[in-house]
Amino acid sequence: MNNLTLLALVPSNVWLQALLLVAGVAVVLWGADRLTDGSVALAERMGIPQIVIGLTVVAMGTSMPEFFVSLMSAINGTPDLAVGNVVGSNIFNTLLIVGVAAMVAPITILHTTVRKDIPFAMVASTLLLMMCLDSEIGRIDALVLFVLFIVFMVFTVRGAHQPKPTDDAPANAEAEAKPAMSPLKACLLMLLGLVCLVLGSNVFVGNASAIAHSLGVSDAVIGLTIVAGGTSLPELATSTVAAYRGNSGIAIGNVLGSNVFNILMILGITGLISPMAIQGITTVDLTMMVVSIMMLWLFSFTKYRVERWEGAALAIVFIGYMAHLISAAVA
C-alpha cells in the first residue's frame, strides 16, 4: 500500500470499516450526480444537442463511480478490485438491471441498437476476455482499449447529429421549462462532484479491501459483488425508472453505454496510469460478462423487444452467478 491508502480512513474495527464503506458509496454516488448535473448544464449552455449530451456526458457521468473506484484500486495496489469492479458492473448491468427493467415493463429495442450498439459492446467484452488470458492488462492493452473508446465516441457523436424530432421534443421542452444554470454554478458542481468521487472512492476501496482481507475473501470477489453493485446503483435507478415511464431507449442505452465506457474508458485510462496484474478474476467471470451481453443480443434480435419472462431469465442467471461466487468464496 502506498501513501494514498492513508487517505482512505481505514479503522481497525470491522464494523467501522463497514460503516465507512457504505459512507464511501453514498459520497461516490452523490458526487457522480453533481458531476453529471454540472456537465449537462454546461453542455446545454454551450448549445450541445440533448441527444449528444445523453450519449456522452450523462453516460460518462454514470460511469464515474466505476472509474474512480477502479483507478484508486489500481493505484493502491489492488488490481483485482479494479478489474473485478468493471467486470462485475457489466454483468450487474446486463443481467440484473436489464432484467429488472424488463420485468417492470417490456423494453423495446431499436434496430440500430441491435445491429450496432449491442455488437460493439460484445466486441469490447470479448476483447477484454482475450486481453486477460495472460493475467495482465499492460499499457499496450490499455492503449488499444482507449483508442477504441475514442473511436466509439467519434462514431456516437457523428451518428447523433441527425436525431429524430419526436425523440428530442420532450427533452427540449423539459430543458426550456427549467431555468438555465449559470456557467459558474455548473463548473462548481463539476468540481464538487470530482472531489467527492476521488475522496469517496478512496474511502470505499480502502475499507472494502480491509473487510475482504479480514473475512478471508479475495479482492476479486469483493470487486465482482459489493463494489460492482454499489457503483452500478445509478444505472439501476436510471434504467428502472426509465422503463417504468416507457422510455425504453434510455433504459437500454444507459446499460450499453455504461458497459462500453467501463471497459474501454475505465480500464483504458487505468491501465495506462497503472498496468494491472490480474490474479483473482477467473475465466468464468470474464466468460459470464460475454455470455450476458450475448443473451441480451439474442433476446433483442428475436422481436426487437425484451419481454418480462426474458427479463426474469436474465435476473435468474445473475442470481445463479452470485451464488457461484459466494459458494466459491466460502469453500
From TrEMBL:
The keyword Cell cycle does not apply. The chain crosses the membrane at residues 14-32, 52-71, 91-111, 143-160, 186-205, 250-270, 276-299, 311-330. This is Calcium/sodium antiporter. Its main location: membrane. It comes from the Bacteria. The keyword Transmembrane applies. The lineage of its organism: Bacteria, Pseudomonadati, Bacteroidota, Bacteroidia, Bacteroidales. It is a multi-pass membrane protein. It is found in: Membrane.
